[in-house]
Known about the structure:
Order of helices and strands: HEHHEEEHEHEHEHHEHEHE
Shape: globular
Radius of gyration: 18 Å
Strand order of the largest sheet: 1-2-5-6-7-8-9-10
CATH class: Alpha Beta
Distance between the termini: 43 Å
Amino acid sequence: xxxxxxxxxxxxxxxxxxxxxxxxxxxxxxxxxxxxxxxxxxxxxxxxxxxxxxxxxxxxxxxxxxxxxxxxxxxxxxxxxxxxxxxxxxxxxxxxxxxxxxxxxxxxxxxxxxxxxxxxxxxxxxxxxxxxxxxxxxxxxxxxxxxxxxxxxxxxxxxxxxxxxxxxxxxxxxxxxxxxxxxxxxxxxxxxxxxxxxxxxxxxxxxxxxxxxxxxxxxxxxxxxxxxxxxxxxxxxxxxxxxxxxxxxxxxxxxxxxxxxxxxxxxxxxxxxxxxxxxxx
Length: 281
């Protein structure tokens, strides 16, 4: 299947500087995984050049096979018990004021990796007391005991992505369910921690569905939302249906502000962790 031709507004200017090389060296030296690399993020050059990166814990092999994602799927390796301290040390070396952590899904683990998540958050905070933290978590199959472990570790923001509108969820997400994800976000919000979510556009959704998704997020207490253009990372992934114009993204941003989101980023190259340091305020 051929890739759909990208419009001019999706052209990415690739620039690197000394900070980019520094981040790359730290990531490689500690054997870390980043969603920047694993997810083929179009903003990697920019973010790394600003001295920021989104770390991916619990390995780099996912137990799910979502059709939009380019992270490898299969049987994961045993968890690396040194990973939390390696991530924490890297954050310290990078002198990050704000860090973002995500992970693959680990449905193979008894608690879906939630204890490892909590331990990682605590170690990062112990070694970097002035660094604020956003965590982008899986759904833990909706298990509230697992969610509470992450809540108790007290990151500043807990994010969980809906990824798309309700109608398209069964088409592109593996195992994850739209209303289960909303339940995760509601649990986070009721805990008192800021809840954040994001969706991709260009998968065949329409404006009514996007607005309904905004309403669903507002109704469960989600305060921050991101909207970005889906870009097909490989021929094995689901193809792009259409490219949404910058003007339409801006319209969604205005709608979201009117609906009451505290912060909403909406543009073709926006990703969940893009400029995440701005969301903390």
